[in-house]
Amino acid sequence: MSYISNPTLYLKSETHNNGLFNNVIQKGNWGSTYLYALQYHKKENYVFRGTKGYSPNYSQVYHGASLAAGHTQTLEYAGQSGTGHWFIGTKPNDQRWATQIARVKLPDGTHYNNADFPRLAYLNRAGGYTRVNGSQYKGNLMLRSDAAVSPESNHFLLFTVDRNSKNSKYGVNGYFTLFDLDRINNDLDNAGSGYVNLENEPYISNFNIPNITTEIGSLQGVDLDERNNIYISSEYAPTDDDYNTQPKKIVKIPWEASSSSQWDIITFDNANLDIDIAGYATELESVQVVGENDLYLTVSYHNKGSHKTTMSRLYEVKW
């Protein structure tokens, strides 16, 4: 394991929730024309879009409620030029995490049913249907799921976290499965408004990380580069008992590197880094990979006075 404490940060955008809720931005996306923001507000998903720039004003372009909701940090351009297709999490479980990945068209209105979209289902069955301990990876043992698309739209990454018993809110092991993006999109095209069962979907490669929540801690955003290195942002949200900034980092994991001895840890607690703001507690949220060791990082800021999330920034980070 190697530590990098001096990444270079470039502030690209700052919003004081112009058009947004006083919630964190679960996923920020710096697109070719627009800046997108995904928020989870009162158990519902909202996507907002603003003109790309330093101080964007956002307007709503998607709303997912009920079965079309689900806590997720997935908002990924699907790589099909001219279609407006994006991937987003849907269908909440007992802990409100999304259990399917839908492909939606933006802009759009309000949806209440995951069955409104072509979607990837049975995510627990991807890559072999087997847990770290060799037992069957049952659907009610999948706590959360997220997806990512590589920068040049070649690969689709599925990331899931299991739990030791149904209804538990605590994640344990992490599972990574790599697919060909064109194949995923073609199968979703053929599904209409139905689903693609990932148990039957050919995959390129997969691996797992035992006890990933112990090894890393908070699991926020996930993305990958074209060499299939995985990047995970990590920082616990402040609590009423400890409303302060927590240790924050990005973990770079080479493909199939199940041991933390092979990882790079990029830390952001260096006082010289322009990321902390007086009166606010930070929470690292999503990552959007541009290339190897080059990504956009969304950081939300919790006001220590009001305990509301009143500000977010998007940085480009290089090391």
UniProtKB/TrEMBL annotation:
Pfam families: Helveticin_J (PF17312)
One BP annotation, GO: defense response to bacterium
Name this protein carries in UniProt: Bacteriocin helveticin
Organism of this sequence: Lactobacillus acetotolerans
